[in-house]
Fold each of these.
Amino acid sequence: MPDREFSGFEVDNVADAVRQPPLHELRVAARSRRRRSAALGATALAVLVAAAVVPAAAQPEWLGSPSRPGPSAGRLLPGVAGDFTLTGPRSGVDVRVEPCVLRFARTTDGGRTWSDWDDARYEADDCQPGSSLEYTVLADGTYLVRDGLRRLSTDYGRTWQDADEAIIPVRTFPANTRPVHCQFVCPAVDEPLAVDPATGIAYRLSGTPPTPLRLASLYPASDGSIWTTYGPGRGTVGARSADRGATWTTWKPATGRRLMALVGINNREGYQLVEDPDGEASLERTSDGGATWSVTMAGLPGGIQGDLTVGADGSLLIVTQTGPESDRTTEVLASHDDGRSFTVVREGGMPVASVSVTPGYAWVFDPGGPGGEAEHLFLTRDGRTWSRFFLASA
């Protein structure tokens, strides 16, 4: 597995490999939670994104519950694979998507055993042909579904409530809660949310939001500050809160530019990716909480979406796709110099249409399973060391 080093990005080469699909395809992909499939390579395109450096000791704790149900060794319900969300170093939730039905499976041991697919499910009351359910895994046992109205489960998918009644409004997120990380639109999530890892209870902010636009992304920094983007598709407004959502500082890119990705290190330092009117994108850095920005890298191809995170060692990890549309593969890039240069640290992964990062971790799906489907993924915290994480048998 070669490590290919390069300074910045070769813009012409990247532009040839990165061809953005029509906007309606991206919206369909976002609404359907962009399920894992080898056939989705044409709609899940390259990722070039901004990120921030967080010390390993400062990484936020993972969402989970000490009273979670024990996993079952059985692997049932063969069929189409679902969408994986990492909830901890060795825990995750996989979702099997069927017409009008969602099934949730959990693991706490790196995927060696999974709960039964029938233990947790959501079935639409009134499902029309061709309709789809939006959903987001908020935490290990907290799931949000949009089925006309929004439904919330805080007990690992066993029971469901009206989300607008069940999500507790608060002026600021309680200190023991974890803001829900999301990138490039989180289906069923319209606003910043946080979850208590001990109880699974979800919270929303009751104050005036920083903008009337819909939430597009949220990145929880290690010091508790929250960095968000808002807007249709990719964000057009950036916002930062240093007091767990009580007050916000907002900014907009210069006239004609679009804010595409935003990540915070702490309440002062962050990175954003913006697109110019001519279609080129730039990576920018702030050290004053978004008041001013300086260019770290310029000349990136525009029209791109982002999968990014910060490794446990402070490295910048980017999951991207490469190759012609008919033969795309996924690779992971790592930077240990604040994004000034990148090294390809893993390649040959299955192209997917779902987010493949979370704070502190990045992963790629291995296509070596029967029929080209992934049986496991490779997980890294720093781009140097990797562990195998087994996926639920569908």
Note: Confidence is low (pLDDT under 50) at residues 6-82.
Amino acid sequence: MPSPTAAERLSAATRKRQTVAEQWARTRNNDVSNLLSTTLPALFDIDRFGLFVLSRDSQSVWLEAGTGVTQRSIVVEAEGSLVGEAIRNRQTRIDTDLSNGKGAFVSVGEKLGYWPQSAMTAPVFCPSTGNAIGALQVMNGERPVAWSDRDQGLLEELCHSISQTVQVLHQHQEIVVELERLDQEIKALDQQESAIRGGHMLRTFEPATALHGEGFLHGLYGKTVFPPFIDVAANADLARSWDTDAYDIFIATHQKVGTHLAKKFVVELLHEGLKHRANVYDTRDIGHGTVPWPEVSVSQHGRAWIDEHIARTHDTPRAWYVHCSYDDMPVRSLHPQTKFIMVYRDPKAVAVSQYFFWKRHPLLAVPEDLSMDEFVELFVGGNLYFGDYHDHVSGWISRKDQRIAPHHILALSYEDMVNRKPEVARALARFLLPHTSFSEDAMARIAEATEFKKMKDEVTNNPQSFHLNPKVYFRSGTTNDWEQKLSDAAIAAIDEKSRAKWDGRTDGPALNQGVTVLGDLTDDSGR
């Protein structure tokens, strides 16, 4: 029997990691971290907190839960860190002036882009042995805070209340060790050009059947083809029960039309605009942890994850992204103040980008020998993931009902997001935060942050919760590489369909009065 290939070992290791991660998720108490994130800011006048657990050898501490960070994204030496010192000395420490911080404080600040001015750190003691096994830390990055004896006593009481949860985390570190071992193995095996980062493989749901004879594994949501990592039953349940609110912002796109570029614009804008208060955009993460894809989140993590994310962001703008058509939105009702950013792109560029991405996606089983011309035939036919691209775009523009007012949906082209960054940044600022003033320097920073190479380097070096492989996902960053990739026949076929669907246009739809356009918000020429 031949030895398994690197790709097969990668798949096996990824499945095993998923199983171990689910075991850890059952072990840790999400209710505790959610309760802390909801109550601590008001109790202690803070903008961040961190719950830390001491390693078995007492040499390091890891961040198990906190504001604006993912689980275990921070691991520091116990020696020389604020948390480690509180644990070693078995007493609460209050640091009211951290302007001259050093050591772990500096390295963590550089990673997160956050430097607290004040921090209060209390140890958590094991209820069985009395040993210090973790710490709860509250921080304020806006101004120094002079915490009182009452504040210190309250934090220590909270540490006592969560001690059993921390004890469970401390006692089951073999699960964490196994996760780290698998992450290292996956990283070593992830030499194949897979579209998903090692360690971030998604579960698939049955029945996942082939489309067009072979490949394109999928499920059906009504009559629409969905990828197999979306549980259509869970999605239907979400659609029957989820009511949006005034804080919700949806980036609505078909696949490979500029979704993550739009996310980056939105995250950078909210990061700038909400600096005066605690928010999930502090780390500028554009992954699922900060800007979720609800259909995938409910499928992979359950409805509770959606509710927890809403609770974490209950009083700030909350960004999501969806690839579904307007008719397939997974909501029961739309709040009249919910906002939408609909992104479209030249269909020729969409076809090329989808072709390369879907072929390299490990869960879709698209045939390796599928040629570009063959794919274009399928693209023009329209029966692919999330439905016909032309109908998808037209559906968001025309909308059969009046649930979204025209001034609450902004239509942006990928080409404008690439070539007119300052105007796009300004338009999004006026659309999303109309009562917030932005300096020219802030607008310039937002535009610069969305440059292709800068985005790719940032996600490669610090992916945070971004689950896709940037080597594959960030392919060209240009608007016209389809000119070199498509045959004359393929170009003609796509243009013919575009003209038929979009009133003679080939590069994008005619934008009617049902949407807001870039020119409406930048004083440029409009439609």
Note: The chain has a mean pLDDT of 88.
Amino acid sequence: MKKVCMVVVEHPFQDARVFRKEAKSLQKKGYQVTMIVPRKQGYLFGVDGTPYKKHYLNKVFTYEGIKIVTYHAESCKHHLSKVLKDASVWDQAFQNPLTQLALKENADVYHVHEYLSLFAGVGIKRKMLEHKGKKVKLIYDSHELTPDPLSERYPEATKKNLYEKLLLMLDEVDQIITVSDSIKQWYQSKKPTVPVEVIYNSPPLTDYTPANTKVTDRLTVCFEGNLSNRKGNWEKIKAISELCAKEMPFQFKILGGTRFNEHLEIPSHLVDVITFTGWVDYAHIHEHMKDVHIGWIDSDGLDASLNERYAMPNKFFSYLTNGVPVVVNESDDLAAFLEKYRCGTVIHKKQASAEDYRDAFLQLYNDSQMLNQLSENARRIMEVSFCWGRMEDRLLAVYRSLLNEEVK
């Protein structure tokens, strides 16, 4: 039985992509999977950032058949920041708890999920060969581009350094996995010899209620995921709700909620229009989609972020899997997908206003035939080509190729 070690620096251990999809799929297919995950201020944390102060307190435990090994994030911060130092001194950084725990797992494949866990992975790969004489495989699962070439998050000198170090680290990577075709093309342009596979953030197929049996007099638009006023979505949701409620029976359903220690107040005149479900378990999201007609994604700051332009987020495929067509503004990969498969509406503006979204929603509300057709197209393309079962096939093909395994 081949051993896989997932190495995580930032994500919660129950992350939908890392745990629910990839780790569970590998386990199901017979791989022995361990995840090494961070505690923050002593605690593991949920997908909304809530610390688990009464649960998962053991350093090592088994969760749904997968071995979870924990470490204190603070203990590795200084070491991992050495990625910015000259590469000749990198070995000093690899004497950290994360790397040492990973070495003890003696895995065949180390699968890392962030820029800093990639740095740890480089150390793991080197040390496994140096100390154990074992050549292991290193997968970089790039959920986004770090550094983002357009972002102003870092000073230019720091961003240049991060980019140069990324290219050095990629020389030691055996396989890149990423989340969109544009990010794949970006990596291929930088490192043509490193294989890259796209594995979308698709959920498994679940029970489905066809659109023509769930249309009601009220149009329900959904935002799924983490909502924060800092991102600007909340202000736009309130503005859209106010405009739409004047034109048609309307509900804006927030499937999810705020992060730990954050709170958003619904204005009194919109309490019957905007609803929060609160955080919903991954396995039950489809139950809350049954009364939803349209999914909403507003990509902000497209001129200042390649990640925004290239993103294919979980919520996008969650909508489509449940037969919910999506309305987006002009982000590269989302817009291209919707127009190719005719499963949503694209507002051809980089900055779409609340009025733009109102007009798009109103048009679909007034054309139930079109809404139903988009819904059918959405479900069909996920069933045929892009559900998690299809992505699982891609993931397993990557592993079989790396490990020279035959198809069983």
Note: The radius of gyration is 22 Å.
Amino acid sequence: MYEIVMPQLSDSMEEGKLVSWKVSVGERVKSGDVIAEVESDKAIMEVQTFKDGIVKELLVKEDDEVKIGTVIARIETGATASSDQKQAATKPTIVPKEERITKKQEVNKEDTKPNAAQTKSVAVTPKESIEPTHISHKIQSGISPKARAKAAALGVDVAKIQARMPQKVLHAEDVDKYVTEKYFTPKALKLLQEYQLESSFFELNHKIDSDEVQAYIDANEIALPKPLSPMQKAIIANVTRSAQKPIYHIYESIDAKLFEAHQEHSITAWLVKIFAKVMMQHESFRSQLLDNAISIAPNASLSIAVADNKNLYMPVIKDASKLTIFEISEQLAAFKEKLKTNSFTTQDMQGGTFGISNLGMLGVARFDAMINKDESGIVAVGGIKDGQISVTLTADHRVINGYEAALFMRDIKKEASEPLNFKE
């Protein structure tokens, strides 16, 4: 039994439409006969058979769309059936109507029985070995079925479009371009593109300006789709990666008395100083997990969350354990300036092993933060209530176990209550 499948007419094609059958069940066919017409988004092509036989089954109805590779017909090849069954389903040869010279015509010209070499040349070719020229055809001019359908739906004269684009195959996007340029002003076209609106939403019998498009947008309360910025894409990728880490939280509070007594520097600056000191006593908090090892940094470097309405950055205070409180404050001030001017560099974001995110100054009581990149943990700093600063530690369980984290937070609370740590 010889099987004919829905062919792939273009690289982008996933499904094909069976336009019409040229044969019927029980009909005898010869190699080279056209058995069907199929349609992709770009052309209608004829499907030929490579084998002589009798049409046994037509498995797809006309106008049905099926995935490429789906068996659409079976041909009983008679005495050769047993040998044919050993072969995989085969793609038929596909040729454009205007260029087809059927093998049936070639065979009719022969006065003698084909020899062995001729028989071999028309044998079924396995699907995976068919030459690309058998399954594709570059049309030099014309209009694709989808473009013709779109033009008809919009009431556009195809001949006018073809007059503008001679020697070119017209596709649906060409029809769109013609319509938008003809019926929409430049400002109206810009709105169409921004809101991803179809030209078919409007009556194409006059020149449409931006006011008319805006009125349509307002009347239908259409949402504005905004493309993601490179920064937003980077944040999404980082957050998605962080969400895959096995984490846990520890909820604690720190005495706020000494922080409030030394307001010449911000709470964030003092926390950087204290956390950097304690990180030098707990190497897991200076660690990054590599493929087959854990990298332990010699000094404590902390990433600090800074953000505005649109962007979020995690610049790193490198070697914070070696810096004075003044130097830490200067770096935090530099981060704020770079945030305003959007001038952070890739180098600014590298080298951290632990992070700090402070939303307490915005009135947030407590929250959880996501670990940045390959760092081992992060602390989320909330507001002050009843003399206590709420902090939530998020740790990567692969690097820091719960016992280590508990000891770390115990030492943080101890150092935050030590007056010597607040000396300038």
Note: Residues 80-91, 97-140 have pLDDT under 50 and may be disordered.
